[in-house]
Amino acid sequence: MVNTSQAGEALKIADLTKWAFFERPALTTPACLMGYPAMSVYTGFGQGELPVAMQLIVKPWAEPTLLRAAHAYEQAHSWHAQRPAIAQ
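Now predict its structure.
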């Protein structure tokens, strides 16, 4: 299953608050709470030039499938080699 990791782009560090998780929770929490193997994979940049990601989720004990899917996605796209302008 594929899910978005977070609603929108990553927050700028200056915009993070002590309670940022509760103000804008990550959409990865349900898979973690249910014990499903999951992994967030970088999928590029949003309109504000900040990273966005998807979450891959597999059935229990299917971690090899999860790793193969994430690896195949990263090999098919060059986004993992790009860096935001602030990091260059």
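The two ends are 33 Å apart (CA to CA).
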